[in-house]
Amino acid sequence: MSEIIRWTAAELGAKLAAGEVSSVEATQAHLDRIAAVDGDVHAFLHINEHALDAAADIDRRRAAGESLGELAGVPLAIKDVLVTTDQPSTSGSRILEGYRSPFDATVVARARAAGLVGIGKTNMDEFAMGSSTEHSAYGPTHNPWDLDRIPGGSGGGSAAAVAAFEAPIALGSDTGGSIRQPAHVTGTVGIKPTYGGVSRYGAIALASSLDQVGPVSRTVLDAGLLHDVIGGHDPKDSTSLPDAWPSFAEAAREGATGQVLKGLKVGVIKELPDSGFQAGVASSFHAALKQMEAQGAEIVEISAPHFEYGVAAYYLILPAEASSNLAKFDSVRFGLRVTPDGGGTVEDVMSLTREVGFGPEVKRRIILGTYALSAGYYDAYYGSAQKVRTLIQQDFDAAFAQVDVIATPSAPTTAFKLGEKIDDPLQMYLNDLTTIPANLAGVPGISIPSGLAEEDGLPVGIQFLAPAREDARLYRVGAALETLLVDAWGGPLLDRAPTLRQAQGPMGEGI
C-alpha cells in the first residue's frame, strides 16, 4: 500500500504544502486503494470522475504561488446525505436513485473553496435511518476490522472509508449518533458539533431539529482541521448560529500537550451502570478514565435521571419530523416516479412510488411519525416526547454546573455481525443509547478510540460531551486523551487491526 494513504490529513496537507507530494498523486493513491478494497468494504456509492481534475487544479494553483489552506489538495469522502452538483445524491434511497442536485450543500461548497478534493459519496442507511448501514438501498457496508460485521450507522460508509484508508477524512451527519457510533465501532474519530454550528443547508433532512453535519477522521487534529473549514454561520440555514468560533485545530493542538487534563472535572453518569454495556466496552471506558485521572483529571459522579428516556423520546420526535420532511418525495417534483399499469391518479402514482422507492425502515418510521402527529395523539406522544427533551436539556444544565465534560462509552457494544439485529428494530435503536441525548439537547459530542474489547478484539470508543458552543473544549480533551492512549499503544489503534495488517487478502494488499 502506498505510504500516502497512511498519512493523516494534517501530515498529507503539510507534505503537499512542502511540495513533497502532489495532490494528483495523493488523490490517485486513494482512488487506487478504493479500487483495491472497496469491492469488499462497499464504503462508496459513487466515485467522483472529476477528482483528478480537481486535484490537478490545486497543484496548478499551488505552483503559481497561491496561498492555500492546510487541507488544500487533501482527498475528502462525502456522506451521500449531502447534495453535490458533480455526483449523484441519493441519501441511500432508491427514491433518489441517480438524482443530481443543482447546488452544493454549504459544507461541500466550503470544502471545495478550501481546496479539498471530493473523491466520492459514501454509503449510508436510507435517509440516515439506521445504526448499521444495513438499511441502504444499495447494500450494506462492511467493517474493515471484520468484514462480517457492521460499520455502524447511519454513516457507516464514511467511517469505513476512513478506517480502511480509502480517504483520510470524511463528512458525515449525526441525528442521534450517526457519526459517533460508527466511529466507536471502526476505531475512528467522530464529532457532532453544537446544533447550529455547522450549516445543514443541502443536507437531505431527516429530523431538522436533530440533524447536524460533522467530521470523520483518524485523529482529533484532522477532525478539527475539517471542522474549521465547514463551520461558521450560514444565512441559508435559518438555524445557523451567528457565533464567531475559535480554531478547533488549534484547540486540538493545545490539547495534545496534555496540560488541559490537570484539574479537569469529568462527569460520569450514575444512571448508566456497567451492566448495560458489553464488558469490554465498560472496561475500556474505565481504563481511559484512569489514564485521565493519572494526569490530574477529577472524576465526578453526576446524575442525569432523564437520559434513560432519551431513546423513547427520540423515536417519537425523529419519526414525526421525518414524516414531514419526507413528504416532499411525492413522485411529482423530482426523484423516482412509478406509474400504475393503465395510468392512475396523482395519488395512485404517489402511493406506488413511495411503496417502491422507500425501504422498510423508512416506511416504519414514516408510519410511526404520522401516527404520533395525528389528531388525538399529538399531545400524548409527540408533545410528551418534547417535554422529556426539555427535562434532558435540564439534566445537562445541572451536570455542566458541576463538571467540564461528561464521559460515556460511545455505544453499548462493539460491532455486531451483519444481519444479527436487522429484524429487531428495538435492539438496533438501543445502539444510540448514549449518543441520542446530545442531539436532543443540541450539545456537542466527540467519540475517540479508547482501545479494543478483550472478548473480541474490536474497537471501542469513549464519548465526551460539552455545553453548547464549547466544541473547542472537546477537541482539547479528546486530543489530550488521544495522545496518552496512542503513546500507550505504541501507535494508532488502526495499526492493531488484524484485517488491515494482513500481508495477504483483500484488506491487506500492500500494508
TrEMBL record:
List the Pfam families hit by this protein, alphabetically: Amidase
GO molecular function terms here? ATP binding; glutaminyl-tRNA synthase (glutamine-hydrolyzing) activity; transferase activity
Q: Which GO terms describe its biological process?
A: translation
Q: What is its EC number?
A: 6.3.5.7
Enzyme category, top tier: ligase
> Which residues are the active-site ones?
79 (charge relay system), 154 (charge relay system), 178 (acyl-ester intermediate)
Q: Which SUPFAM superfamilies match?
A: Amidase signature (AS) enzymes (SSF75304)
**What keyword terms does UniProt attach to this protein?**
ATP-binding, Ligase, Nucleotide-binding, Protein biosynthesis, Transferase
Q: Which reaction does it catalyse?
A: L-glutamyl-tRNA(Gln) + L-glutamine + ATP + H2O = L-glutaminyl-tRNA(Gln) + L-glutamate + ADP + phosphate + H(+)
- GO annotations of cellular component type: glutamyl-tRNA(Gln) amidotransferase complex
The record's annotation in HAMAP family points to: GatA
Binding partners and assembly: Heterotrimer of A, B and C subunits.
Q: Which family does it belong to?
A: Belongs to the amidase family. GatA subfamily.
> What function is annotated for this protein?
Allows the formation of correctly charged Gln-tRNA(Gln) through the transamidation of misacylated Glu-tRNA(Gln) in organisms which lack glutaminyl-tRNA synthetase. The reaction takes place in the presence of glutamine and ATP through an activated gamma-phospho-Glu-tRNA(Gln).
Query: What is the protein name stated in its UniProt record?
Result: Glutamyl-tRNA(Gln) amidotransferase subunit A
* Organism this protein belongs to: Microbacterium azadirachtae
